[in-house]
Amino acid sequence: MTFAERIQSAFEHHETDKVPVHHISVSSRVASYFLGREVCVGGGIQQWREAKARWEGEDAHAEFLEKSAQDATDVAEAFEMDIVRPFYWMESRKPAKKIDEYTFFYGDPEGEYEIKRLDPITELYYTVENKTLQKQVECLAVMAIYGL
Asked: Which domain of life is it from (predicted)?
């Protein structure tokens, strides 16, 4: 069976020649190790890479998207997956400011904003500070006080 036939059969609850394989996410570090080069896949690290590319301009972002799609295909082929996930988690916002190599600022410093940082060891791109979330928590606290 081809991968397409295998997936179609599985979705139709018919017998397949083997169990279809798909990994919802693959660590960039692991994929890079197996392919022998830096591979643009993964979770948080991909969001950071996209933020970095958006910060560097439209050409850098277009190059990032192209490399990411090709790398996802290469990973799927190398790991013999039946389904290709062409794009991993995305960061659709352009940062307003680059704080340091791994940290970006999004939003308005005088209003709602979020600061996100990459931990290169864990490949997580996490929120360091979120003024929007703080306002929501404060509103919920007030509502709880008044029994709303």
From this structure: Bacteria
